[in-house]
């Protein structure tokens, strides 16, 4: 990947994570203020649950976007025959995109972030 592609990947993944965190955090607020749980759980337990729901939601959205970005980058240079087979087997393709996104989201984000930061430090010197 080029520097610009890495930078875009970091920006897109970060934005997707923040969006998922906010959306799922809003859903977690309904559980946070649930009257049944207020009596059973402490404030700390409900707060940690709210943060956990937000983090998992952010990772979900970021992983799906990451899978789409990585898979589209992978298929750019593939033959037309391969692309036709992917279209015919679209259910398997969707599962592969989701699995690749969940497995490679965090490692690819860290690697791309380190490359972007290293390049930025080299340019500043």
UniProtKB/TrEMBL annotation:
Segments crossing the lipid bilayer: 9-33, 48-72, 84-110
Swiss-Prot/TrEMBL keywords: Membrane, Transmembrane, Transmembrane helix
Domain of life where this protein originates: Bacteria
Full protein name: Uncharacterized protein
Organism expressing this protein natively: Enterococcus pallens ATCC BAA-351
């Amino acid at each position: 990947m080029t520097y610009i592609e890495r930078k875009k990947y970091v920006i897109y993944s970060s934005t997707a994570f923040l969006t998922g965190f906010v959306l799922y955090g809003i859903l977690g607020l309904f559980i946070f203020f649930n009257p049944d749980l207020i009596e059973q759980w402490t404030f700390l337990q409900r707060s940690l649950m709210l943060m956990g729901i937000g983090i998992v939601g952010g990772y979900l959205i970021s992983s799906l976007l990451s899978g789409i970005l990585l898979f589209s980058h992978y298929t750019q240079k593939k033959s037309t025959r391969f692309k036709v087979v992917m279209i015919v087997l679209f259910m398997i393709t969707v599962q592969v995109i989701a699995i690749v996104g969940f497995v490679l989201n965090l490692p690819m984000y860290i690697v791309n972030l380190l490359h972007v930061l290293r390049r930025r430090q080299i340019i500043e010197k």
